[in-house]
Automatic annotation (TrEMBL):
PANTHER family per the UniProt record, alphabetical: NADR_TTD14 AAA DOMAIN-CONTAINING PROTEIN, TRIFUNCTIONAL NAD BIOSYNTHESIS/REGULATOR PROTEIN NADR
Annotated ranges, domain NadR/Ttd14 AAA: 172-330
Name by which UniProt lists this protein: NadR/Ttd14 AAA domain-containing protein
Pfam family, one: AAA_28
Gene3D superfamilies, per database record: HUPs (3.40.50.620), P-loop containing nucleotide triphosphate hydrolases (3.40.50.300)
UniProt source species: Pseudomonas abyssi
Domain of life where this protein originates: Bacteria
Length: 341
């Protein structure tokens, strides 16, 4: 049976991927010789990071080119990803440039289930100076009356496949805070108590490998690697049925180190990596004496670090839980407030 179009396009957050998305992509598949599936979101949603969405799309449609990018990956392509609430024009131009860099050729039809489709197709047609058709699919959600917003609020097996539901229910819990506030000991202990994968801090290892001297580029490497290690741990947790992973630090920590160590602005990619979302953040307070192991900075640096954490969390409107007191008190507080399932 002949196809109506050579190349079709489907764009979405897919956060999470649900039956309505599947119907849209399958409709495009039936009508096109090839389909480009683009997914991006800024901010991303906990449980629906770019690595997880990439796996969902690869598993569902291995015959198609599936391009999933977060803000940091867009930086590597030389693009500035717009926020989710940015204008239609910004979204359309970003998609056009992303298609140019990934597919390397124009598309013939835009498949969507929302009213933006025609304006998007018109913009792409002008961008490439060739016709682009808009195909509207199940606009009124008659076949699949569901939304990503509803599923993020209440994950349901009724509208998602088992792998998508498992990924949504696998929480990423991170401990952050200044030097010598117990992040490593507490995160490793909690992971052992719960039997969950633990993501170690790569920065310390890289610092030792570099002989204690780091450049701005080293900090970007640290943040990239930390995210890679975390993605690996999440994939393992999903495969083995764990309900969470515990992270000793986040890329926000690396960004704060950059702000304290270097006069020049952080690389845009590092700023983007620090946006990475978590289901639960714990801020370890600097309210007990610094333990000097020969590598720690002075107390004044620790307090400056802690102040930066607090200001960054406030500016980003992130609700972090705080761990105060002795190690025993912190451990007890974690066990009370981090559910086992």
């Amino acid at each position: 049976m002949s196809k109506h179009y050579r190349t079709g396009l489907v764009v979405g957050k897919f956060s999470p991927l649900h039956s309505g998305h599947r119907y849209l992509i399958d409709t495009a598949t039936a009508a096109c010789e090839q389909v480009l599936i683009l997914s991006y979101s800024r901010p991303e949603f906990a449980g629906c990071t770019s690595a997880v969405r990439q796996q969902w799309l690869n598993d569902g449609w291995p015959q198609h080119q599936c391009v999933v990018v977060d803000a940091a990956q867009a930086c590597r392509l030389g693009l500035a990803m717009p926020d989710n609430n940015a204008s239609d024009l910004q979204q359309r131009q970003f998609c056009a440039e992303l298609i140019d860099r990934t597919l390397g050729q124009p598309i013939d039809a835009v498949f969507s289930s929302e009213d933006y489709g025609q304006g998007f197709a018109d913009h792409l047609a002008q961008h490439w100076q060739r016709p682009v058709v808009s195909v509207l699919v199940d606009r009124d959600r008659i076949r699949h009356p569901i939304s990503g917003t509803a599923l993020r609020a209440a994950p349901s097996a009724d509208w998602q496949s088992t792998d998508v539901l498992a990924a949504q229910r696998c929480r990423r819990i991170a401990l952050i805070g200044a030097e010598s506030t117990g992040k490593t000991s507490l995160s490793q202990w909690l992971a052992e108590q719960r039997g969950w994968p633990w993501v170690a801090e790569f920065g310390r290892q890289h610092w030792e490998d570099c002989g204690g001297v780091l450049s701005s580029g080293d900090l970007l490497t640290i943040a990239r690697t930390q995210v890679d290690l975390e993605n690996e741990a999440v994939a393992l947790a999903i495969r083995e049925g764990h309900s969470a992973v515990i992270c000793d630090t986040t890329p926000l920590t690396t960004l704060i180190y950059h702000q304290l160590m270097f006069p020049e602005p952080p690389p845009p990619e590092l700023i983007a990596l620090a946006e990475r979302p978590y289901h639960q953040l714990w801020l370890c307070a600097a309210d007990f004496p610094l333990v000097q192991d020969g590598t720690r900075s002075p107390e004044a640096f620790r307090q400056e670090q802690q102040a930066l954490y607090e200001s960054e969390l406030t500016n980003r409107q992130l609700c972090a839980l705080t761990l105060h007191g002795s190690f025993e008190q912190r451990r007890a507080h974690l066990l009370r407030n981090v559910p086992a399932a």
